Amino acid sequence: MPDNSFTLMIIPNRKSGVKKISVPKVIIRNILIAFIAVVLVTLFVVYDYASIKRDRTELARLRTKTVEQSQQLRDLGMKIDKFSDRMEDLRQFDKKIRVLAYETSSGKKLPLGVGGADSENRIQDLLEKDHDQIVRGMRDNLQQLNEEATEREKSFHELLAFLQEQKSILAATPSLWPVKGWVTSEFGKRQSPFRSGKEFHNGIDISTRYGKEIIAPADGLVFRTGYHPQEGNYVRIEHGHGFSTAFLHLSKIAVKQGARVKKGEVIAYLGDSGRSTGPHLHYSVYVNNIAVNPRRYFK
Fold first, then answer.
1. How far, in Å, CA of 173 to CA of 285, rounded?
2. Which portions of the chain are predicted below pLDDT 70?
C-alpha cells in the first residue's frame, strides 16, 4: 500500500527519543497551493495598486494639461479677436486713404471700393461653448483673416503703385515759378510788340533784373539747348507724363543738353537775347506738345 504521508523526524539536543510526525501529502500539497495562490494574489494586488496609482498620476497630469490647453485656447481666441479688430482698423484706414487719394487726384484713377469679409465670428462669444465649437470658430476666423490679409496686401500694393505714380506726376508737374518778377505779358492773344495786329502768345513773359537765376520748375531731362535768332538762348526740358517747358531770351545757359535736373535747380540766367524788347524770360509749358497756360500749374 503506497505511502501517502511525509514523516518529519525531530531530534532534540537532549538525550530523549526521536519524535516522528506524519503529515499527509494532501495537506502539504494544499499548503503549497495556498501559499502560491497567496503570493500570486499579493503580486496582482501590488501590480494593480501600482497601475491605479500610475493611472491616477497620469489622469491628474492630463487634467492639468487639459486645463492649461483650454486656457491657451481661450487666450489664442482672444488674440484672434484682437487681430480681427486690427484688420478692421486697417480696412478703415485703407478706405480713408482711398477717399483722400481719390479727392486729391485730378485723374480719379483709384477705385473707392475695397474688399473685406462680410461677417466674422467673435471667439469671445464662443468661450462658453464646447471645445469643438471654439476650434471651428477659430478655424473659420483664421480663414477669414487670411483672406482679409490677402485683400489688404493687394489693396496696399495698388495704393502704393497709385501714390508712386502720383508722386512721379507731381515731380514732373511744373509747379514752381522759374523766376520771381513781374508778368508783363500773359498767355493767349495779345497785341504784337513788333508789328501791328494781334498774335497768340504761347507762354508768359516775366521781367526782372538782367542775369537773375532761373530754376527748373520740375524734375526733368534737358533735351535741347542752343540759340535761335528769335528765341535767343534757350533751354527746353522734358519732365515726363507729357509735360515739357521752354525758357527763352536767356543771357547764359547753366545746364548741358542731356543733363537731368531737379526741381529748383538753376538752369540759366535771365537776359534779352534774340527778338526781345528788354530783359525778361519767356516761359512756356506744353502738355503733349500743346502749349497751355503756365499759371494753371503754379502753386
1. 10
2. 1-3, 6, 8, 13-18, 69, 72, 77, 101-135, 137
Q: Which long-range contacts (CB under 8 A, 24 or more apart) does 197-205 make?
A: 202/284, 202/291, 203/246, 203/248, 203/282, 203/283, 203/284, 203/285, 203/291, 203/294, 204/282, 204/283, 204/293, 204/294, 204/295, 205/280, 205/281, 205/282, 205/283
**pLDDT at site 2:** 53
pLDDT given at position 49: 84
Distance CA 114, CA 98 (A): 9
Name the strand (E) or helix (H) holding 149.
Answer: helix 131-172
Q: Enter the pTM of the model.
A: 0.56
DSSP percent split of the chain into helix, strand, coil, nearest 5: 45, 25, 30
Question: Which region holds residue 239: left if phi is over 0, alpha if psi is between -120 and 50, else beta?
Answer: alpha
